[in-house]
Amino acid sequence: MKRFRVLLALALILGLGASGSAIAAPKLNLGAASNNGGMIVFAGVDRGIFAKHGIDAKVVVRNTGAQLTKSLKAGQIDFAPAAFTNLPAALERGIKVRGVVGYVGGSYSKPTTDGMVGIAVRPGRGITSIGSLKGKKVGATFGSTGDLYLRTVLNRNGITKANYRRINVRPPSLVSLFDSGGVDAMVAWEPYLTRMVDKVKGAKLVVRGGDYVCFCAGMHAVPGIVYRDKKVTQAFVNGMAESAAWVRDPKNQAAVVKIGVRYVRGVSPALFNRTLKYWTYDPRLGPNTFKAFKFSVKQLIAQKKMKRPYDPAKYFDLTFINRTMKEHPEWFKDLK
User: Fold this and answer.
1) pTM over 0.90
2) Element (DSSP H or E) covering residue 30
3) Distance (Å, rounded) from C-alpha 301 to C-alpha 148?
């Protein structure tokens, strides 16, 4: 009987130890947009990179930044991406979030990254240059970085808002509206940009990139998530950085495409493969990131969407990514 009690006690101890280790990994729902830009998150989950860093991560895909923010506020997402385009206005209105790591773009190296966005024009509309967009009907997703790109490109070429008609188009409808002829031109990001040019015979790009804006976004969360357990946030940032390094490695491109087409609906492996090169996956944040943020603030003030400048230091917390860069330089050795 005594021996039985000893064995039973030992079994209970071993059982408790096993159950304790089984519940150790914190769960995080990670938001991502349904385009090539979400590859760091997609790959980090699918390749088990977040799991390697002790995070039980799940991808939550949404079509727009507004939907991602809504899901973040509702607690359906723990960390969500946010472009710098309209974020400052939301911050001025009182949204409480802190950005901790880059999601897409190369704002660490320079304050502009826009090779993944451009303006496609339909044939037979007399558009041969940026200047000839004057008086035309141009589609854009209002409030997006593509919209900021359009405004900036046209403004710098002497075309004011009053000189063309801007049509609001939701991301899922970008290609279909361009195909149907509902607009003369469309500003879009990849893979939609290349897809619409492929689909409409005679269509062409009147401009791609050009260092007009920063098509950049960072991952942020409410302070309660960021600072609830700093070790978990650090592990998340480490996972983002290692995942980005894996995505950038040319030898992994076939695997990247295979993962990407599972998350970005309606995009063929061939199209995803062709358009991947236009995206920049650099999780670093720094002084140039702040410059890009301030540029968006300036534009928002000019559009009367903001009243005054907003200090980016109130939004970005570089503590976590700076530590990652210091402790794991191998994940950034291919970057400038």
Assistant:
1) no
2) strand 27-33
3) 13
